[in-house]
Every structure is written in C-alpha cells, then in structure tokens.
Amino acid sequence: QTAEDIQIVRFDKDFRSKQLIKDAIMDNDFLKNLDSSQVRELVDSMYPLEYEKGSYVIREGEAGSHLYVSAEGEFEVIKEGKVLGKMGPGKAFGELAILYNCTRTASIRVVSDSKVWVLDRRVFQQIMMRTGLQRLEDN
Ligand code: CMP
Asked: Is residue 10 part of a domain?
C-alpha cells in the first residue's frame, strides 16, 4: 500500500446493467484485451450519471478524467464541428484520453436525455495496477 492508493468504491447494479457495461468494454478495440478480473472490477466500480438533451459529456480538446459507457439515450460524436456518427446504449467512450493521456479527440453530445455509467481515471489506473501486481504475485 502506498500513499497514492485510493479507495475503490463499488456501486451495486442490476444484472442487465453489469452485462451492458461488460459487453461495451469487450466491444471496444482499446479495452477488449483487459483480463476478466479487471473487466469485473471496472463493471463493479462504474457509477451512474444523467445528462440532459443538448448537453456535452465530453468536449474535444479538454483534458479527460473519466471513462464512460452509454446506458440510455442517443449520443453524437463530433469532431471539428462535424458529426462523425451517432451511438446508442452499450458503447464505451472516452477511453483514448484515459489510456493515452492525450486531450479529448472528439466531443460527445447528448441528443436525447441520457444515462451513462462513469469511471474516474484514478480508479481505472488503480484497477489496472492492482490487478497487474496481483498477477505478478500469483506467478
Ligand atoms: P476520448 O478522445 O477520450 O474522448 C472522445 C471520445 O470519442 C474518444 O475518446 C472515443 O471514445 C470517441 N471517438 C473519437 N473518435 C471517434 C470516432 N471517429 N468514432 C467514434 N467514436 C470516436
């Protein structure tokens, strides 16, 4: 244990929500290679947030500190003012700034009142580190 350690808080969720988050992570090219215990911890640690129609979950160019999974509603991916695509429930997004420490590569705009699952960057890093260390100890 170090001073850097932060508390990982679990948020109870129903089976369908857990399944949706897990499927979204496994469907994301940058997250699909995490091992199953890491995925399970991510699923358990995500917490819900609601967004109103017209608001932004992510703004292009800003620093990023959260990873998201869409749960309800519709979202637009916008880059340099152009709509690149739309997505509905069951998509993980915001992973690029978290994984690569870059600024947000696109904006995510909420098209209809929406619900997302959220994970803080520090919790993500903690889960990545802890499970990695656990794996070393197990070998
Ligand atoms: P991030 O750069 O952290 O924040 C914006 C997110 O939008 C990004 O992570 C991806 O999850 C997502 N994103 C970026 N570009 C695209 C794209 N061309 N199509 C779909 N999603 C994208």
From this structure: no
